[in-house]
TrEMBL record, chains A, B:
This is Pyridoxamine 5'-phosphate oxidase family protein. Pfam families: Pyridox_ox_2. InterPro entries: Pyridox_Oxase-rel, Split_barrel_FMN-bd. The lineage of its organism: Bacteria, Pseudomonadati, Pseudomonadota, Alphaproteobacteria, Rhodobacterales. It comes from the Bacteria.
Amino acid sequence: MTQPTDRTRLRRTHERGSYDKADIHAILDATSQCAVGYVIDGKPYVTPTLHWREGNHVYWHGSSASRAIRASKGVEVCLTVQILDGYVLARSGFHHSANYRAVMIFGTAEEVTDPAEKEARLNRFIDGLWPGRSAGLRPAQAQELKATTLLRLEITEASAKVRRGGPVDDEADYALPIWAGVVPVRQVIDAPEADPRNQEGVALPARGIGFEQER
Amino acid sequence: MTQPTDRTRLRRTHERGSYDKADIHAILDATSQCAVGYVIDGKPYVTPTLHWREGNHVYWHGSSASRAIRASKGVEVCLTVQILDGYVLARSGFHHSANYRAVMIFGTAEEVTDPAEKEARLNRFIDGLWPGRSAGLRPAQAQELKATTLLRLEITEASAKVRRGGPVDDEADYALPIWAGVVPVRQVIDAPEADPRNQEGVALPARGIGFEQER
């Protein structure tokens, strides 16, 4: 369980919120898409990227030359995940809503600098999505690891927020002849597109986590 | 065409970038999911929400009591959209990548306060997703409009960034017996779940924009 702070305490619709690490971890594992917020000269920036989780840390990486990466290392960031699960259609505009799973994490983005540690964590990112894949790849070169910055954030100041279920309308509105309900959305995988330069007989990797939405 | 600024100029992989309004609009229209970044006491916050576009403005809304909404109105925000189109698997970890379409918009979030204007814009949000739906709904009440804050951002300081296509490997690595290619992902819609309290014979609304990924 994380401790709610002034930043993570859910003030509105708090029945949708959770500070439970299992809930937070499950949402982080269900998608690789996140948005990282940081501040440059007092102004907000949000960079979309991919993340993965190991234990109680969330990791992301980027080019060491990237402004987003340089501006977010060693400083306060806010990492947010949003999974849209459906549109909630009600009998009034006001009660339209969305079903979703979201996580917000606050903290200082810490750079992982040890090359062996970096390589292990980056391999774990690939293996999370494609189990066992990293062992078969051409090994990382020292300059590739140098050109890559790996950042992580401990999941201590964090909260989850989830909305599930159908519309909740004003009682009188249930008599209206309006279609109400949920239109679910989810992410799916299409047929893989093999590189035309693949060697003969190579096999498509199996899928790992991060594809949870394909239910 | 928007003018690149210090914040929107793409420094790396700039061949993936565009300042063309048509490109930016098309990505904003292809999803309703976005993340809004703002600053409180010098620290970054990112709130996931839904947006829509009308002309050269992007709109979003929330409860007037929401901290995220109160903290972002009238101040500098960064609104980001990220659509993940696929995982790009290469023959080295370093050249793994993702196909995506992204937009970043910077500016001051302007509150729309006129009730009639608010109602028209909020109806447009619903009608964008479900054409014609708003006209059949129970009309908005004054206190509902008051409880809703509508924000907008002009699309002037903005950029798009898109990656498409297969992996680009080091020339020597093409000889390796490793599966490489693209694993496409997209968002789809599942069978709608009607509210059990629906009146008999009500019809499911037709779908509008924002579902472009269902190709």
